[in-house]
Amino acid sequence: MKDNIAIKVSQINKSFKVPHERNTSLKSAAVNMFSSKKYTKFNALKDIEFEIKKGEFFGIVGKNGSGKSTLLKILANIYQPNGGKITINGTLAPFIELGVGFNPELTGRENVFLSGTILGMPRKKIEAIYDDIVDFAEIGEFMDQKLKNYSSGMQVRLAFSIAVRADSDILLIDEVLAVGDAAFQAKCLNYFEQLKSKKKTVVFVSHDMEAITRFCDSAVLISSGEIVSVGSADMVANNYYKLNTSESSESSLQDEKTNLTRLTISDSKMIGSRFVDPSELIFSLNWKKNKYIKNVGVAIFRNDGIYCFGTNTQIDKVKIKQNKATLKIENPNLSKGNYVVKLIFFGDTDHTPVEFIDNAAQFTIEDDTLQQGFIRLKSEWK
Fold first, then answer.
1. 276-297, pLDDT tens digit by residue?
2. Which of 131, 169, 153 is nearest to 52 (CA)?
3. 369 — phi, psi (to 5°)?
4. Is pTM beyond 0.85 here?
5. Residue ranges in 120-166 assigned as alpha helix (H)
């Protein structure tokens, strides 16, 4: 394997035996103990193949049941594949799911040492970082209580705090943003920024395409155990939306495609696509009527892929009553550069895309100042 490759996945296959009959009582279990059960073979992964470079933030995406968590468990050596080969260059710390490596009868303090040992940390190392683990998890007053008395949020905060401090070469993270409260999720995002700046190799499973495009350099999309696409995070996220759109709308939407007819961007002074210090940006949307569209979202990306801003009508608690919508952003303060607008049309929730338009419009911000950075902020020297 090349020296710059952290993980090489070659033709991985994984299948499970699913019994036709399920024991629902002690009696049925006893009756079926000596009978020849019939099984169906379920192919969870089929010929999965990709490479992850050292220092890369790599995403694994797919719908529930697609096989992504199975793949992550194979990477973590929890499952063994039925065929193929995985080569890992370096030490690995998994944060796979709530409770792995924990003993509910032990205290939080004891579980820190147990889990740290499982992750390969010597006791002196665990003792040295113990206070940091507790501070990050924010559960110091509960560390001498048994884990079984913890809430699920407390458990996941502790587990994540241990995993990210294992100082391994590769970190596996499965849906950490789907658990815990908003404050903990924000702390995780900040820590992801640190991992990315340190060029840590991270394998990240998530349904959150905003997080995927924000952090990941590249990604793989899996559906029904097979690779749909592998490449840049933006490309894979777009394909994820398109896949969900086609599968969710194939039977119900038929010819009722969104067919966006117009998106205009303006400010209070002019209409066009080039703005000099705009006091506001106005996005005017008009699309073909579609009874399945309940919410619409706008996302602004700089042309180098940096995610600048995103919102939707569900987040802002606005109900769509017709096939028109206007979004006004006051004092955008975007730095000089070219920007791309992405549109997402949703069903009843912001997790059900009906249509995704990757490049709905483009605009340019012109600036005669020499300030540097991501956004323009008002500043004054004294």
1. 778 888 899 888 887 778 889 9
2. 169
3. -90, 170
4. no
5. 123-137, 152-163
